[in-house]
Amino acid sequence: MDATDKAILLLLQKNGKITIKEIAERLNLTTTPIFERVKKLEREGFITSYKAIVDRKKVNLQLIIFCNVTLNLHQTDFLKKFEKDIQQFPEVVECYHVAGMFDYLIKIYAKNMEEYQQFLSNKLASLENISKVQSSFVMTEVKTLSHLPL
Amino acid sequence: MDATDKAILLLLQKNGKITIKEIAERLNLTTTPIFERVKKLEREGFITSYKAIVDRKKVNLQLIIFCNVTLNLHQTDFLKKFEKDIQQFPEVVECYHVAGMFDYLIKIYAKNMEEYQQFLSNKLASLENISKVQSSFVMTEVKTLSHLPL
DNA sequence: GATAAATAAAGAATATAATTCTTTATAAAT
DNA sequence: ATTTATAAAGAATTATATTCTTTATTTATC
């Protein structure tokens, strides 16, 4: 992991479709070393995957909600059960077990408020073991870095 | 946006490096229609970009912290100022203006606790207008969908 | 119901990029 | 100084993306 590898990661994080040729030009090298370095970064797990980023509004997911969840019971079995249940819901795009004021932080994408209400009433709230749910509705996405600060 | 487009988006979200040829095979079509549909999805903004996903632990970002921030003053100017300041910090990978118990939710990546403490003391807390900061430390990433639920 | 227009897909041909292989340079070690 | 290892260069090959032309399918109009 030298400076060249880091530069490659930065370029690929910004644009996963950048060609080996173009990386080579930018870093003043030929395609072979770049090709081999990229393959090594993939092989060694620095790059886990490549993904197309889809515009959520274009596919009608207008709402982002962060939900702080507090459980009643905190024995391992109950945590595992909750984590397994939450995985199933397609609305939940992220879920973190956190140490802090609440137990879990979950991020939800919904088409509209009705869909979110359905999720909350029929899905989340109907899990056993849920003690409290506190929702935060995203008004503006101030910063959304999809690349890591290397 | 028909069923084929949706299927293409699902495949590209999972694997941005999938070839036109392979998409074609999976959807029982030839490369031409797939190529043109992908270009259309890009042109019309459904696909905003392609990115390489980098393993944060591999690049030594061991901690994820969610930070709930409450401001003192909520006039437009003060909000804008805070939003501008928060953008500068490389540690902050996401920031949302939310309606709920707090004003802003920020997501932070840090190498270790010391780095986070430095960020909190020297950077975040030194912004004017900050009233309260409540940190939640991620213990486990239960679910991290990097693709939208289409 | 027949015809025309539009849309989508197929097939072939070309251009571009990825990948492999061989050679050369550079740096580190004995 | 000589060997060994590492990294990069250059050329050749393979695979994929891209373009162009043709064919099928659907939709609209008379």
Itemize the secondary structure elements and their pairings.
2 copies of one chain form a homodimer.
Chain A: H1 3-14, H2 20-26, H3 31-43, E1 47-54, E2 63-71, H4 76-88, E3 92-99, E4 104-110, H5 113-124, E5 130-144
Chain A binds a DNA duplex (30 and 30 nucleotides) through helix 3.
GO cellular component, one term (chains A, B): cytosol
Protein name (chains A, B): Lrp/AsnC family leucine-responsive transcriptional regulator/Lrp/AsnC family transcriptional regulator
Pfam family, one (chains A, B): HTH_24
Question: How does this model look, in words?
Answer:
Chains A, B: InterPro entries: ArsR-like_HTH, AsnC-type_HTH_dom, Dimeric_a/b-barrel, Tscrpt_reg_AsnC-like, Tscrpt_reg_AsnC/Lrp_C, Tscrpt_reg_HTH_AsnC-type_CS, WH-like_DNA-bd_sf, WH_DNA-bd_sf. The structure is a homodimer of 150-residue chains. The first copy, chain A, contains 5 helices and 5 strands; from the N terminus they run αααββαββαβ. The first copy, chain A, is α+β, with helices and mostly antiparallel strands and 150 residues long. Chain A folds into 2 domains: 3-43, Arc Repressor Mutant, subunit A, CATH 1.10.10; 63-137, Lrp/AsnC effector binding domain/regulation of amino acid metabolism (RAM) domain (Alpha-Beta Plaits), CATH 3.30.70.920. Chain A has a 4-stranded antiparallel sheet with strand order 3-4-2-5. In chain A, strand 3 (92-99) and strand 4 form a beta hairpin. The model of chain A has no long low-confidence stretch (mean pLDDT 95). The interface between A and B is large, with 64 and 64 residues. Chain A binds a DNA duplex (30 and 30 nucleotides) through helix 3.
